[in-house]
């Protein structure tokens, strides 16, 4: 049955894909291209490129689109449910337990201890974004955009929506031509 | 059901989703901005817990954040509402505009637009990093923060150990080994 297959195809990458949506992309490819043959490798690459040009989480865009192509609106719903629900349910369950004991000294210390790791994780992620930018726009543009956006966001407290809109405009005007 | 609250939840997650270029992780600082700074639904500590657990579990991070925060703030309706706001707009864009978008894909203007957002997201993540380090210093002290940061960085970047494992070890350690204060309390 197609809906059951859709569920499995997106449930498995969701439940074994550590490192967020982008990490589950190769696993999704294995399922939808190799196992079920719903799309070809070329189509998958094309979808990924289009998905990456759009904002928002990538795993759900892939699940929503492929689910829709294979099984219509119901197919899209099943694929999205399989992507989102399993890890979310575990998360709600675990955080529920955590907050039940949030005044316990052990839980307090534990949540304190994981903070540096989370900070490092975000820091590494930040540098990955800088790295991507150096690769696509070069050093000069990257440093310029970092300095300008830091000043706008932190010094002049401009809303991120406006800064991102500004970056989109700047990129469309100045980075679209020379960049390889 | 609190209509105003549900509307705010929708706005918060719609904005985070539609502004996040570069997949789910790029929405983290945007969600922080909305949930902690703008609407004050959570403090930094709770947000850090959500991130820690979200990272320790598999699957997309953006929907785990949206689903959990939506649930905590607005119950089951809040959960569904926040998920819809995160997922649906971009899925609809993808399904509805696929023909148009595949011709755009070759466009250098679109590539340039997406490229320019990457450093902005990087800056926002970096600011959040510094915020968490500062709070950690306040909470567990400078020395422990520095040691744990170096250990995490080495494990993640140089030894290739997945952060989920580091977080898992810290959670187990934190919950099983008795805190010093509790020990003293039991002894006296």
From TrEMBL, chain A:
**Protein location:** Cell membrane
Q: Which domain of life is it from?
A: Bacteria
- Tell me if Membrane is a UniProt keyword of this record: yes
Q: Which InterPro entries does its entry note? A: CHR_Transporter, Chromate_transpt
Q: Which GO terms describe its molecular function?
A: chromate transmembrane transporter activity
What keywords are annotated for this sequence in UniProt? Answer: Cell membrane, Membrane, Transmembrane, Transmembrane helix
Q: How does it sit in the membrane?
A: Multi-pass membrane protein
Q: Which Pfam families match?
A: Chromate_transp (PF02417)
Major place of localization?
membrane
**Where do transmembrane segments lie in this chain?**
7-28, 78-101, 113-130, 136-153, 160-179
Instruction: Give the record's GO CC terms.
Output: plasma membrane
Q: Which PANTHER family match?
A: CHROMATE TRANSPORT PROTEIN-RELATED (PTHR43663), CHROMATE TRANSPORTER (PTHR43663:SF1)
**Family stated for the protein in its record:** Belongs to the chromate ion transporter (CHR) (TC 2.A.51) family.
Protein name, UniProt field: Transporter
Q: Which organism is it from?
A: Alkalihalophilus marmarensis DSM 21297
UniProtKB/TrEMBL annotation, chain B:
Against InterPro entries, the record matches this protein to: CHR_Transporter, Chromate_transpt
Is-annotated flag, keyword Cell cycle?
A: no
Q: Which residues form a coiled coil?
A: none
Q: Where can this protein be found? A: Cell membrane
Keywords, sorted A to Z: Cell membrane, Membrane, Transmembrane, Transmembrane helix
Protein's UniProt keywords contain Membrane: yes
Please provide, in alphabetical order, the Gene Ontology terms of the cellular component aspect for this entry: plasma membrane
Its domain of life? Bacteria
Q: Which residues cross the membrane?
A: 79-102, 109-128, 140-173
Which coarse location class describes where this protein primarily resides?
A: membrane
List the Pfam families.
Chromate_transp
> What membrane topology does the annotation report for this chain?
Multi-pass membrane protein
GO MF entries: chromate transmembrane transporter activity
Record's family? Belongs to the chromate ion transporter (CHR) (TC 2.A.51) family.
Record-linked PANTHER family: CHROMATE TRANSPORT PROTEIN-RELATED, CHROMATE TRANSPORTER
Name of the protein described by the UniProt record? Chromate transporter
Originating species:
Alkalihalophilus marmarensis DSM 21297
Q: What is the lineage of its organism?
A: Bacteria, Bacillati, Bacillota, Bacilli, Bacillales
